[in-house]
Design a protein that fits this description.
The protein has 348 residues and is α/β, with parallel strands linked by helices. 34% of the residues lie in helices and 18% in strands. It starts with a strand and ends in a 17-residue tail after the last helix. Mean pLDDT is 95; it is low at 344-348. The structure holds phosphoenolpyruvate (PEP) and manganese (II) ion. Manganese (II) ion binds at residues 101, 297, 307-308.
């Protein structure tokens, strides 16, 4: 349930309501908006609604009918903006995260980071722990990969996102990355999600290969209910009967999530398409549909990539895409990379 406090409710009244709810065995998540405080009440206890309604300072008690209590708009109607220093995911600016699927070596990471920065990306992406479908495929460089990614991000003033596959990696990945990525294959790794609920860094939660939007929001709920409010959803394509593309990129998920949830949503057209000649179309469509950001695979030499080369853009393709997105975004009241970007020297 949600307890909406009166506009002029005092701190003492809010504390008293929280204390009463805790007595009922519930967890209380407080959200203080511009005018009033809303308390999200979750847990397995039973609360007598009438006993809460009569407490001082309470305006209204609403039962949340959706199974996702904290991720839904009943609890929090205002869009969540995930803030990482000067990077705001979920604000007016469409944030672009780009980089290689995997960190492979210093030259590759550095060259790719330089290229994506120049084109206007704000966040460097790159995996050091890779969830590969085959145990014989490249599994990532581990800590060495994280080290390379962090120094490239620092050198180019980029934030860093990297995947964490297991609870045993949280501490290590958290030492290097600014955003934890939870991969599609781990969307329902509930132990991992619960643990990330206690992390102090944002989590980008990819949609599972066969997950419904409700299941995806329930996974976000695991992180939110642990106290970590900085969850970014990521649509990366789902498995359908269609085989022409690696996955079926579900553009409608962007509209559905925007309606149901206050959490920001970014789109991953690279894994959605699975082939680089279709990434730009999907990226443009995602921004037009209202995505708060994109996460795109770019490689300085994609034909030699150790993972996902076929879907990785050449730097020049990424540069061109960014120029197109700068035209699309304002049409729907958004912007992309406000700072002037040094564009000289880029061949088309
Ligand atoms: C990735 O981002 O490289 C990745 C493995 O993505 P997903 O979990 O969406 O397959
Ligand atoms: Mn990949």
């Amino acid at each position: 349930m949600v307890v909406v406090m009166k506009e002029r409710a005092t701190e003492a009244q809010i504390d008293a309501v929280i204390a009463r709810l805790v007595e009922f065995g519930m967890d209380v998540h407080r959200s203080s908006g511009a005018t009033r405080t809303v308390l999200g009440v979750v847990g397995s206890g039973k609360v007598d609604k009438g006993l809460i309604e009569i407490l001082d300072g309470v305006h209204e008690v609403i039962r949340i009918t959706e199974p996702y209590k904290l991720a839904g708009r009943t609890f929090k109607n205002d869009d969540t903006v995930v803030v990482i220093d000067d990077v705001r995911v979920g604000g007016d600016e469409v944030i672009v995260m780009a980089g290689p699927c995997s960190a492979e070596n210093e030259a590759q990471v550095m060259a790719t980071a330089a290229a994506v920065k120049r084109a206007g990306a704000k966040v460097l992406r790159g995996g050091a722990f890779k969830p590969r479908s085959s145990p014989y495929s490249f599994q990532g460089l581990g800590e060495e990969g994280l080290r390379l990614l962090r120094s490239a991000a620092n050198a180019h003033n980029l934030k860093l996102i990297s995947e964490v596959m297991d609870i045993s990696q949280i501490e290590l990945v958290g030492r290097y990355a600014d955003i934890f990525q939870v991969g599609a294959r781990n969307m329902q790794n509930f132990t991992l999600l619960r643990e990330l609920g206690h992390a102090r860094k944002p989590v980008l939660l990819k949609r599972g290969l066969s997950a419904t939007i409700e299941e995806w929001l329930m996974s976000a709920e695991y992180i939110l209910s642990g106290g970590n409010k900085d969850v970014i959803l990521c649509e990366r394509g789902i498995r359908t009967f269609e085989t022409a593309t690696r996955n079926t990129f579900d553009i409608s998920a962007i509209a559905v999530v925007k309606k149901l949830s206050h959490l920001p949503i970014v789109a991953d057209p690279s894994h959605g398409a699975g082939r680089r000649d279709m990434v730009a179309q999907l990226a443009r469509a995602a921004v037009a549909a209202g995505a708060d950001g994109l996460i795109i695979e770019v490689h300085d030499n994609p034909d030699r990539a150790l993972s996902d080369g076929a879907q990785s853009l050449f730097p020049a393709q990424f540069d061109r895409l960014m120029a197109e997105l700068r035209i699309i975004a304002p049409a729907i009241g958004r912007s992309i990379c406000l700072e002037p970007v040094a564009r000289r020297g880029w061949a088309r």
